[in-house]
Structure formats: structure tokens, C-alpha cells
Amino acid sequence: MAKNDLQRSVTTATARQLATTTKTPPQMGSITPRLLLKLLPWVQVDSGTYRVNRTKVELKKAERIEIEYFEGTPAFRADSLRRIPLFQQIDEEIVTRLANRFIIEEVELGNHLIHEGDENQKFFIIANGQVEIISKGPHGENLRIGILSEGEYFGEADIISDKPSSVTVRAITPGVFFTLDSTELENIIKEVPNFREQFQKAVDEHLRLKATVNTHGEKHIDLVSGHEEDNIIPETYIDYEENPREYSLNTLQTIVRVHTRVSDLYNNPYNQLEQQVRLSIESIKERQEWELINNKTFGLLNSVEPGYRISTRYGAPTPDDLDELLSLVWKNPAFFIAHPRAIAAFERECTWRGVPPVTTNIFGTPVITWRGVPIIPSDKVEIKGQYLTNRGVGTTSIILVRVGENEQGVVGLHQAGIPGEIAPSLSARLMGLDKFGVASYLLTKYFSLASLTDDAIAVLENVEVGYYHDYQHRNRVEK
To answer: Are 367 and 357 in contact (CB under 8 A)?
Structure first.
């Protein structure tokens, strides 16, 4: 019997020709919650430029040495040593001589650059890798007093000292270093007879200036305290930066093109122009969040001062590392920002230690908190390293910020009320029709970001996202 003889009614395939389908609006997989845009307080910038006035910094903070590579070999420029506060007072000729005497030294994991008690002091700059600085505590215990990474340095003030080293410096990763020891320094002293006097004078001046400023490098305010009569009240004043930083609004733009035939005929159930504009705006906002984090001029990662950059101790982000971040931005911290895989790595460390973080809800999105501070997910905090499909194996950063003008924190900048505005600081303008009947619409977003003080942002660097614990091995050990 033929197949058609068994048909008892119209088939669904045929019936579907008389039916309409239930449709969704166009979906875009790259859309994220963009919690950073929602949590940032936005400041109206009517003039298009935002100036951040600060008190004058009398003692500049140390900056990292910029490392360059030539055919795979690391190097640094002599004038980069001027970023070290101590060397700002030394003649350029001597600084150049010092820079030329550094040698490149490769160090394996666990090797020591400096041993406690060494009489031959060493000044080193990290080209690649990490070291930990260990000192003896008052009860004889080992204390980790610092972790240094690329571009940082140690021992610049001790190379002319006759005292033995009071610390131990150990490599916690394989690394490459520029080193200058006190033996090599003696050769420079012979070439420049007044070097020791000039160097010691720079050290003394640095220590004197350091005693007159607070931890932020600002001059101490002269005050008097007590109940005694006839005290002379000191006179003082607050000085300001002569050249304060100014932020101009950044621009994001794109042109959306829609043929008039499409917008005239194919608008049911969804308006074609509206959907084209909506998806373009979503892309603009995604790029806006990326710029707020990564822009070389005003992005969060590039606005962090060297003193507020720390490194993980073991690679994977631990509760100790986030506690260290909180100790830097301790004045009303608002939230952390991290890649979802960095958050997962942190949760694994918390699980391993038996301290699962608390979960809260922000704008309908569940996020974890640490010490009551939310950890906001954002894939715009990029992972550097190798990738297997969509699972990153590499390192990233975790950012902690304080926000708001009243808190002297981080603020977003925009200008609401611009011509053609369809959202705050976002405009859409018809540019006209071309000879093919295609209409063009210009979308423009104006924004920027400003950090009002140095301690408003801190970042945890070298965060490894690909480490997993072996729980089965741990259970066997415990048994």
C-alpha cells in the first residue's frame, strides 16, 4: 500500500503553511550584565572636560621600571631609574653609570637573590618573575613583608651600606633580573670620587623629606595639641597641584544603515530600525565597559598607582590576597571586578579552605561577596595566556574600587542632554539617504572615568585561573 493511502488528515508540515510562527526579537550572545556601568556613580560634565584638583604631593611615590625587549633580551633605559625616588636627587651622569653596570641574571624557582646576613648587598630590578621578601619577626618567626613582580626593585638604598642584609629575598617563580651588587659598585666609586658622598646625601635628603610628609606624600599640617597655656599656634597652609589632571569625554560612534524598503515593509511584529539600533546600542555599551577597564588613558587597570598593585602569593587568588586588596582600599570599598573564571578560581580556593563566600543579589544578578564587598563579574577584565576552546588558562587581574565624589573615589563621566539624545549621553541622528535608498543613523556615546585619589583603586595581578585542587588526594591524606 502506498504511503499516501495511510494519511488520515492534513500533515503538520502542510498545516504550518497556513500558520504564523511565534518569534523572538534578535538575540545577541555577547550581551553581558554590565554591572560596572550600573554601579558607577555618573557625574554630569557640562563643559566636556573634568578636572581633578588634588593637594600637592611633596614626595613622589616610586614607579615601576619600564622593561623593554630587544630580540627577546630584556633591557631598561637609564632615565627609567629616575622613577626611583632616591635617584631623583643624583646627577644624570652617575645614574647612567649605574644603569650600565647592571647584569642580567636568570634565577630558578626557590633560589635566593639575597640571604639574611649577607655583607655583599645587592640592588636588583625584576625583568620577569616574582620574588618574596622575608624578614625575621620580633619572636624569630619568618614574616613575608612583600611580593615584588615585573618592573619592581629592591635594595637601592643598601648598596653603599656596610651593614649585613636584614632580609632574605627568594624567587617564587623562575625569573630574569637586572642585578648590581656592592662589589661592582666599588668600581663606580673609583671612577667617580664623590659618588659615595653624593649618594649618601641623596639618601639623607630622601629620609628627611619622608619625615615631613604623610603616607600619601602630602606635607604634614602643623598642629598643636595640649592644655598648656601660652602655646604658640603654628601657621600652615594647604598647597595644591600646579598641573591637575583633566579628563575629556571619550567618544564611541558607529553608523547604522537600514534600507528604506526593509523599514517600510518588514516591520511586523518587530520594527526593523528599532532592532538594528537596539543591538548596536548593546554593542556600544559592551565596548564602553571594556574601555572603562582597559583604556590606556583613563581605564581602571591603567589608573592604578604602583603602590596599589600587588601580586598573588601562590598564583590562584586566595582569601588572603583579597584581604590584602581590602587593606589598600580600606576606606569604604565598593566592589571588586573580576573575570568570571577568576571568580571561579577564587571560589575553588574558598571551597578548599572551607570558607564559602556569601551570595547576594545586585540588579537581579547573583554575585558572591568577600568581607561584605561584592565581586562583580566582567569578561572585560581579560585573561592573558593560552586558550583551549572557551576555557582560558592564563593570568588576569582582580580590581577593587571605592566610588563616588563624596568618597574621593572613582566616578563615571558623561554629559546628559546632548542633541538627539535617546539615553543619557547617547544620541542617535539621521544622517540622510544615499542614492540606493539606504538610510544612515549616527550613534554616539560620550563618557569617561576619573579616579579622584590614588587609594581609590587597587589591583591584584598575576591571578592564575587554571588551577584545580585534587580533592581525592586530599581525602586519602586525611584518612
So the answer is: no
Question: Which class for 175: exposed (0-12), middle (13-18), buried (19 or more C-beta within 10 A)?
Answer: buried
65 contacts 80 by C-beta, under 8 angstroms: yes
- Strand 335-338, strand 373-377: pairing: parallel
Q: What's the grid cell of residue 100?
A: 650600565
Q: What amino acid occupies position 40?
A: L
Q: Which three cell numbers stand for residue 84?
A: 626611583
What distance in Å separates the CA atoms of residue 168 and residue 150, rounded to the nearest whole number? 18
The contacts of residue 332 (CB under 8 Å, 6+ apart) are 402, 407, 409
Q: Are 32 and 367 a contacting pair, CB within 8 Å?
A: no
How far apart CA 145 and CA 104 sit, in angstroms, is: 25
Is the CB of residue 366 less than 8 Å from the CB of residue 356? no
8 A C-beta contact, residue 90 and residue 199: yes
CB neighbourhood size of 107 (10 A): 22
Quick: pLDDT tens for 386-444.
Answer: 655 556 578 999 999 999 999 999 999 999 999 999 999 999 999 999 999 999 999 99
Question: How far is residue 25's CA from residue 270's CA, in Å, rounded to a whole number?
Answer: 7
CA distance 397 to 309: 10
**Rg, Å, the chain Cα set:** 30
Does the pTM exceed 0.85?
A: yes
Residue for grid cell 652617575: 94
- Cell digits of residue 299: 581605564
Q: What are phi and psi of 407, to 5 degrees?
A: -95, 5
Element housing 200 (H / E):
helix 195-211
